[in-house]
Amino acid sequence: MYGSPLYSPPRVWTARLYARLRSSIVVRTTLAILLLSTVLGLISAAFVSASVDRREQQRAEVRVQELVATIERTTQIACYLNDRTLAGEIARGLMRNRSVQGVLIASGKTTLFRVGNTTVAGGRINDAEIVRQVHSPFDARDPIGRIFVFVNRAAIHAEARSYSRAATLAMALQVALVAAGAALAVYFFSTRPIRAVSNELHRIRSDSGTRLQAPAGNRHNEIGTLVTDVNALITSLADLLVTERDLRIAHEIGARKMRLIFEKAETGIFVLDTQGMLESWNPAFVRLLRLGPDRLPQAGVTPLQQLLSPQAELIRQLIGQCLASGESYSLDIEMPASEDHRAGWIEVALNPIDSTILQGLMNDITERKQGELSAHELATRDTLTGLLNRRGLEVGLAATLTPRPPESAAELALLQIDLDYFKQVNDSYGHATGDQVLRHVAGVLQRNTRRGDLIARPGGDEFVVALLGIADAAKAEQIAQGIIAEIARPIDIGGQSVCIGASIGIAFTCGQGDSPEAVMRRADAAMYRAKRAGRGQVCLAAAATPATASQTSAVA
């Protein structure tokens, strides 16, 4: 039995009943009506029972009183005659009433007749339930005896309870009928239509286009209004679902596009926190920074400063500047050449999103920088010889002689070089030959100077060499004599031998505050003295010669 599928343990049955009660408004409403009716019925029954019981007892006592009153005349005769037989008939007649349990008739002090239970509490006859004085039939003021009637309280109570039970049952039946009628009315006019609407609502789908139908007879009451409101809500929900679906599809398409752009973009895209820690980045970021598998960053762990360690301080300043001002700033960073990559440039731009996040963009600007450098070269280089032109020389000298602390004043020897006999070569052999001679002289100057020295062709057949870090006149003269000697050698150009010479004037810086123009003027003046001395000579600018330098007399 216990293993049978038809058997359910009491606990399971109770749980199912409780679930049914919780899920059914019909059951709960009906039970609530019945329970309320039962409680009210019990209260009413108790009140009615007590009232009927009390009233029946009173009626029983009144009947006994009336019964005693009816036999009063006969009792007078029995007591007057002391007739025991008549007294017995009277007593037995009273005993036929179920409410009487005993009768005692006395004439004076003589008991004429006693029947039934005439025991009196405390042994006193005055404790009888009903005592009636018997007077003489001839003189109403002459008492001749008494009649004692002992009421049967148990019988009276039993009869009262019988009437009470009947009244209670009638009231209970009436309450039950009223409760059943109320439950049926609520069921048919309220809970049943609501349940029908609920069941239909469970089956309906918002995207199917179907709507609820109000139960018959309820289209114009509160249930019909509820159905109308629910249909409006379903329509609104369906519209929202369609809109949400369209937005979700559009968002997914946009997200895929953004992911594709993020993954395939040539621009490096990354996100930083306020400490410079990388939160996210795309593949272009890794490619632009030339990061190998062993150097890939970790989100929230690797700072951008670590990946650009030579410019770490500049990166920190850039982050602080963006956060402090709330504006975008950028920085150009040179990427040195390596075994796998050539030298290049990248631009790092930061844009604050909020107080805690920075969005960064990184672009390869190598071509732009090369273009800028090419434009700079064109602006500062002589196209024929590749040396600095006049502007390039001025920029270089200005950078070298920038004001600095007196103890670190720039040391520089400026050689002003002018070619001798170049005009005759140009006139005799043509400008093409003259250009080859100028390129040859440029090579001589590059071979006789160091990598960091400035070499320029301001124009025509004039050249300038700035020997950086040289303050010794003898050393400067030695370099100048070497230049003159090499330039004086015959130059083979297309099978033709061409000879030229050079005159050089040397000027030194005078310490802090000396300007490029002043040094060049002194060197130019010294060069003209060298030319007047007979060409192929070196002349020092006397005013600029240091105290430790030996003086070389100019040849007049």
Q: How would you describe this structure to a colleague?
A:
This protein has four domains: 13-186, Beta-Lactamase; 204-264; 265-370, Beta-Lactamase, CATH 3.30.450; 381-544, 2-Layer Sandwich (Alpha-Beta Plaits). A hairpin with a 7-residue loop joins strand 3 and strand 4. The strands form four sheets. Strands 6-5-9-8-7 form a five-stranded antiparallel sheet, sandwiched between helices. Mean pLDDT is 81; it is low at 544-556. It has 556 residues and is α+β, with helices and mostly antiparallel strands. The protein has 15 helices and 16 strands. Helix 3 packs antiparallel against helix 4 (84-95) and helix 12 packs antiparallel against helix 13 (431-447).
CATH topology of the largest domain: Beta-Lactamase
Tell me the CATH architecture of the largest domain. 2-Layer Sandwich
Unreliable spans: 544-556
Spatial ordering of strands, largest sheet: 6-5-9-8-7
- Tertiary shape: rod-shaped
The proportion of residues forming helix, as a percent range, comes to 40-55%
- CA(first)-CA(last) distance: 143 Å
- Tell me the name of the CATH class of the largest domain: Alpha Beta
- CA radius of gyration is 67 Å
Structural class: alpha+beta
Please provide the count of β strands. Answer: 16
Number of helices: 15
